[in-house]
Amino acid sequence: MNKYKLVAMDLDGTLTQHKSKLEPKNAELLRRLALKYDLVMVGAGSCSRIWEQMNRFDIDIIGNYGMQRSHVQNGDLIIDKSDCYTVDKDFFESTVSQLRQQTGYASYTGDSVEYHPSGAVTFPLIGTKAALKDKLLFDPSGEKRSAIYDKVASAFKDFNCFIGGTSSFDIVAKKYDKYSALIEYAKDKGFKKEEILFLGDDFKKGGNDEQVMQGGIDCVIVKDYNTLDALLIRRGIIEA
Protein backbone atom coordinates (compact mmCIF):
# COMPACT_ATOMS: atom_id res chain seq x y z
CA MET A 1 0.00 0.00 0.00
CA ASN A 2 1.20 3.53 -0.74
CA LYS A 3 0.24 6.85 0.81
CA TYR A 4 -1.29 8.45 -2.27
CA LYS A 5 -4.95 9.33 -2.53
CA LEU A 6 -4.92 11.85 -5.38
CA VAL A 7 -3.16 11.26 -8.71
CA ALA A 8 -2.72 14.45 -10.71
CA MET A 9 -1.31 14.48 -14.22
CA ASP A 10 -0.24 16.48 -17.21
CA LEU A 11 -1.74 15.56 -20.60
CA ASP A 12 0.50 16.21 -23.61
CA GLY A 13 3.57 13.98 -23.51
CA THR A 14 2.33 12.26 -20.35
CA LEU A 15 -0.93 10.59 -21.38
CA THR A 16 -1.00 11.50 -25.07
CA GLN A 17 1.09 12.64 -27.98
CA HIS A 18 1.09 16.44 -28.11
CA LYS A 19 -2.25 17.87 -29.31
CA SER A 20 -3.46 14.34 -30.04
CA LYS A 21 -6.46 12.38 -28.79
CA LEU A 22 -6.28 10.11 -25.76
CA GLU A 23 -5.68 6.60 -27.04
CA PRO A 24 -7.69 3.58 -25.77
CA LYS A 25 -4.71 2.10 -23.90
CA ASN A 26 -4.25 5.12 -21.64
CA ALA A 27 -8.01 5.68 -21.33
CA GLU A 28 -8.16 2.18 -19.83
CA LEU A 29 -5.18 3.06 -17.60
CA LEU A 30 -7.14 6.05 -16.27
CA ARG A 31 -10.09 3.82 -15.51
CA ARG A 32 -7.80 1.48 -13.58
CA LEU A 33 -6.31 4.39 -11.63
CA ALA A 34 -9.79 5.72 -10.85
CA LEU A 35 -10.64 2.48 -9.05
CA LYS A 36 -7.97 3.27 -6.46
CA TYR A 37 -7.37 7.04 -6.51
CA ASP A 38 -9.09 10.35 -7.10
CA LEU A 39 -7.86 11.82 -10.39
CA VAL A 40 -7.35 15.35 -11.67
CA MET A 41 -5.86 16.63 -14.92
CA VAL A 42 -3.59 19.67 -14.55
CA GLY A 43 -3.08 21.33 -17.91
CA ALA A 44 -1.88 24.41 -19.72
CA GLY A 45 -4.85 24.53 -22.09
CA SER A 46 -8.47 25.34 -21.36
CA CYS A 47 -10.68 22.79 -19.63
CA SER A 48 -12.83 22.37 -22.73
CA ARG A 49 -9.85 21.74 -25.01
CA ILE A 50 -8.38 19.20 -22.60
CA TRP A 51 -11.74 17.46 -22.18
CA GLU A 52 -12.26 17.15 -25.94
CA GLN A 53 -8.69 15.90 -26.41
CA MET A 54 -9.46 13.25 -23.78
CA ASN A 55 -12.58 12.19 -25.70
CA ARG A 56 -14.75 13.67 -22.94
CA PHE A 57 -13.32 11.39 -20.26
CA ASP A 58 -14.99 11.77 -16.85
CA ILE A 59 -12.29 13.58 -14.88
CA ASP A 60 -11.81 16.84 -12.97
CA ILE A 61 -9.67 19.30 -14.91
CA ILE A 62 -7.51 22.23 -13.84
CA GLY A 63 -6.96 24.35 -16.96
CA ASN A 64 -4.86 27.32 -17.99
CA TYR A 65 -2.39 26.83 -15.12
CA GLY A 66 -5.19 27.26 -12.58
CA MET A 67 -7.30 29.94 -14.23
CA GLN A 68 -9.98 27.33 -14.88
CA ARG A 69 -11.40 24.33 -13.08
CA SER A 70 -14.10 21.90 -14.18
CA HIS A 71 -15.82 18.61 -13.42
CA VAL A 72 -18.05 16.30 -15.42
CA GLN A 73 -21.69 15.82 -14.43
CA ASN A 74 -24.12 13.59 -16.34
CA GLY A 75 -21.81 13.63 -19.34
CA ASP A 76 -21.50 17.44 -19.46
CA LEU A 77 -18.48 19.59 -18.68
CA ILE A 78 -19.26 21.95 -15.81
CA ILE A 79 -16.94 24.94 -15.39
CA ASP A 80 -16.45 25.63 -11.68
CA LYS A 81 -13.92 28.43 -12.01
CA SER A 82 -12.94 30.71 -14.88
CA ASP A 83 -10.59 33.59 -14.14
CA CYS A 84 -9.63 36.06 -16.82
CA TYR A 85 -7.65 39.26 -17.16
CA THR A 86 -6.57 41.60 -19.91
CA VAL A 87 -3.07 42.14 -21.25
CA ASP A 88 -1.33 44.99 -23.06
CA LYS A 89 -1.23 43.63 -26.60
CA ASP A 90 1.07 46.41 -27.81
CA PHE A 91 3.62 45.34 -25.19
CA PHE A 92 3.41 41.68 -26.20
CA GLU A 93 3.59 42.42 -29.92
CA SER A 94 6.65 44.64 -29.60
CA THR A 95 8.40 42.35 -27.11
CA VAL A 96 7.85 39.23 -29.21
CA SER A 97 9.04 41.10 -32.31
CA GLN A 98 12.25 42.04 -30.50
CA LEU A 99 12.73 38.49 -29.25
CA ARG A 100 12.31 37.09 -32.75
CA GLN A 101 15.04 39.36 -34.04
CA GLN A 102 17.34 38.56 -31.11
CA THR A 103 16.86 34.79 -31.26
CA GLY A 104 16.64 34.21 -35.02
CA TYR A 105 13.01 33.07 -35.10
CA ALA A 106 11.85 35.84 -37.41
CA SER A 107 9.98 33.50 -39.78
CA TYR A 108 6.66 32.01 -38.76
CA THR A 109 3.35 30.81 -40.18
CA GLY A 110 0.14 32.49 -39.06
CA ASP A 111 0.22 34.91 -36.15
CA SER A 112 3.34 35.83 -34.20
CA VAL A 113 1.47 35.95 -30.87
CA GLU A 114 -1.62 34.07 -29.70
CA TYR A 115 -4.00 35.64 -27.18
CA HIS A 116 -6.35 33.42 -25.19
CA PRO A 117 -9.70 34.52 -23.71
CA SER A 118 -8.34 33.88 -20.21
CA GLY A 119 -5.54 36.40 -20.65
CA ALA A 120 -2.84 33.78 -21.16
CA VAL A 121 -0.52 34.48 -24.08
CA THR A 122 1.36 32.04 -26.28
CA PHE A 123 4.61 32.92 -28.05
CA PRO A 124 4.67 30.32 -30.87
CA LEU A 125 8.17 30.26 -32.29
CA ILE A 126 7.07 28.90 -35.67
CA GLY A 127 3.67 30.61 -35.67
CA THR A 128 0.08 29.80 -34.82
CA LYS A 129 -0.67 28.16 -38.18
CA ALA A 130 2.34 25.85 -38.41
CA ALA A 131 1.37 22.27 -39.30
CA LEU A 132 1.21 19.80 -36.41
CA LYS A 133 3.91 17.63 -38.01
CA ASP A 134 6.22 20.65 -38.14
CA LYS A 135 5.48 21.47 -34.50
CA LEU A 136 6.24 17.90 -33.43
CA LEU A 137 9.54 17.91 -35.31
CA PHE A 138 10.61 21.40 -34.25
CA ASP A 139 11.88 20.86 -30.72
CA PRO A 140 10.98 17.42 -29.33
CA SER A 141 13.59 17.55 -26.57
CA GLY A 142 12.97 21.20 -25.69
CA GLU A 143 16.61 22.10 -26.33
CA LYS A 144 15.87 24.98 -28.69
CA ARG A 145 13.50 26.66 -26.27
CA SER A 146 15.68 25.91 -23.25
CA ALA A 147 18.54 27.70 -25.01
CA ILE A 148 16.56 30.95 -25.15
CA TYR A 149 14.37 30.48 -22.08
CA ASP A 150 16.28 32.93 -19.86
CA LYS A 151 16.03 35.65 -22.51
CA VAL A 152 12.29 35.10 -23.02
CA ALA A 153 11.56 34.86 -19.28
CA SER A 154 13.54 38.04 -18.64
CA ALA A 155 11.58 39.90 -21.33
CA PHE A 156 8.36 38.88 -19.55
CA LYS A 157 9.71 39.22 -16.01
CA ASP A 158 6.37 40.39 -14.61
CA PHE A 159 4.72 37.13 -15.73
CA ASN A 160 5.30 33.41 -15.34
CA CYS A 161 6.87 32.02 -18.48
CA PHE A 162 6.76 28.30 -19.31
CA ILE A 163 8.05 26.12 -22.11
CA GLY A 164 4.74 24.88 -23.51
CA GLY A 165 3.57 22.40 -26.10
CA THR A 166 6.13 21.48 -28.74
CA SER A 167 7.22 24.83 -30.15
CA SER A 168 6.07 27.66 -27.91
CA PHE A 169 6.21 29.54 -24.63
CA ASP A 170 3.18 30.11 -22.38
CA ILE A 171 3.04 33.44 -20.56
CA VAL A 172 0.57 33.86 -17.69
CA ALA A 173 0.02 36.13 -14.70
CA LYS A 174 2.40 35.49 -11.80
CA LYS A 175 -0.16 33.88 -9.52
CA TYR A 176 -0.90 31.03 -11.93
CA ASP A 177 1.16 27.85 -12.12
CA LYS A 178 0.43 24.13 -11.89
CA TYR A 179 1.79 23.75 -8.36
CA SER A 180 -0.29 26.55 -6.84
CA ALA A 181 -3.38 25.38 -8.72
CA LEU A 182 -2.94 21.78 -7.61
CA ILE A 183 -2.41 22.73 -3.97
CA GLU A 184 -5.54 24.89 -4.06
CA TYR A 185 -7.54 22.03 -5.59
CA ALA A 186 -6.22 19.50 -3.07
CA LYS A 187 -7.06 21.79 -0.16
CA ASP A 188 -10.60 22.28 -1.46
CA LYS A 189 -11.03 18.51 -1.83
CA GLY A 190 -9.51 17.63 1.53
CA PHE A 191 -6.23 16.05 0.40
CA LYS A 192 -2.90 16.61 2.12
CA LYS A 193 0.15 17.54 0.08
CA GLU A 194 1.86 14.25 0.91
CA GLU A 195 -1.14 12.36 -0.45
CA ILE A 196 -0.65 13.74 -3.97
CA LEU A 197 1.26 12.03 -6.77
CA PHE A 198 1.89 13.98 -9.99
CA LEU A 199 2.64 12.44 -13.39
CA GLY A 200 4.40 14.72 -15.86
CA ASP A 201 6.98 14.88 -18.61
CA ASP A 202 8.46 18.39 -18.48
CA PHE A 203 10.31 19.12 -15.24
CA LYS A 204 13.31 20.88 -16.78
CA LYS A 205 14.04 24.56 -16.16
CA GLY A 206 11.11 26.49 -17.58
CA GLY A 207 9.09 23.33 -18.14
CA ASN A 208 5.45 23.70 -17.20
CA ASP A 209 5.65 20.82 -14.71
CA GLU A 210 8.80 22.16 -13.03
CA GLN A 211 7.12 24.04 -10.19
CA VAL A 212 5.16 20.96 -9.10
CA MET A 213 8.41 19.15 -8.34
CA GLN A 214 10.03 22.25 -6.86
CA GLY A 215 7.05 22.60 -4.54
CA GLY A 216 7.78 19.23 -2.98
CA ILE A 217 4.97 17.14 -4.46
CA ASP A 218 6.02 13.56 -5.27
CA CYS A 219 6.41 13.21 -9.02
CA VAL A 220 6.77 10.48 -11.62
CA ILE A 221 8.79 11.54 -14.66
CA VAL A 222 7.16 10.16 -17.81
CA LYS A 223 9.56 9.74 -20.72
CA ASP A 224 7.18 7.91 -23.06
CA TYR A 225 3.40 8.11 -22.79
CA ASN A 226 3.18 4.77 -24.61
CA THR A 227 4.77 2.97 -21.65
CA LEU A 228 3.08 4.86 -18.82
CA ASP A 229 1.24 1.74 -17.63
CA ALA A 230 4.48 -0.22 -17.26
CA LEU A 231 6.08 2.71 -15.41
CA LEU A 232 3.24 2.89 -12.91
CA ILE A 233 3.37 -0.86 -12.37
CA ARG A 234 7.12 -0.65 -11.61
CA ARG A 235 6.45 2.19 -9.16
CA GLY A 236 3.74 0.17 -7.40
CA ILE A 237 1.02 2.69 -8.24
CA ILE A 238 -1.10 0.07 -9.97
CA GLU A 239 -0.91 -3.71 -10.05
CA ALA A 240 0.17 -5.69 -13.08
In short:
With 240 residues, this protein is of the alpha/beta class. It folds into 2 domains: 6-83 and 176-234, Rossmann fold, CATH 3.40.50.1000; 89-173, Hypothetical Protein, Haloacid Dehalogenase-like Hydrolase, Chain: A, domain 2.
Describe this structure in words.
The strands form 2 sheets. A 7-stranded mixed beta sheet has the order 5-4-3-2-1-10-11, sandwiched between helices. The protein folds into 2 domains: 137 residues, Rossmann fold; 85 residues, Hypothetical Protein, Haloacid Dehalogenase-like Hydrolase, Chain: A, domain 2, CATH 3.30.1240. The model has no long low-confidence stretch (mean pLDDT 96). The protein is of the alpha/beta class and 240 residues long. The two termini are 14 Å apart. The relative contact order is 0.17. The chain is globular. It contains 8 helices and 11 strands.
H/E order of the elements?
EHEHEEEHEEHHEEHEHEH
Distance between the terminal alpha carbons, to the nearest Å?
A: 14 Å
Count of spatially separate domains: 2
Query: How much β-strand is present in the residues?
Result: 15-25%
Which architecture of the largest domain does the CATH hierarchy give at level 2? 3-Layer(aba) Sandwich
CATH class label of the largest domain = Alpha Beta
How many strand elements? 11
Structural class: alpha/beta
Q: What is the CATH topology classification name of the largest domain? A: Rossmann fold
> Tally the helices: what do you get?
8
